[in-house]
Model the fold of this input.
Amino acid sequence: MKFRPLHDRVLLRRIEQNEKTAGGIIIPDTAKEKPMEAEVLAVGPGAYNEDGDGRMALDVKAGDRVLISKWSGTEITVDGEELLVVKESDIMGIIEGASASKKKAA
Done:
């Protein structure tokens, strides 16, 4: 199944954080917080402007790493993978200099 966001919505994959603290303590799944960092998978075409005759382009693009609030968006499952759909306004910022290919720290 393919999913294409509409208007100013963005499809994200949360990037899991390390399962250990800096001191080497392993954090159990029940104590973990939702990751605030995510990778942009797809973006909508943008919301219509006030005149309704054009669209306002989004500032994010596929492949960007972004910072989101913990409880924003709607969680969906696509092909067995849990993803997140948020409005662009729920994205706090783009993480510059981070490669989207670094999904998990081993």
Q: What stands out?
A: The chain is about 0% helix and 30% strand. The chain has one domain: 9-17+25-94.
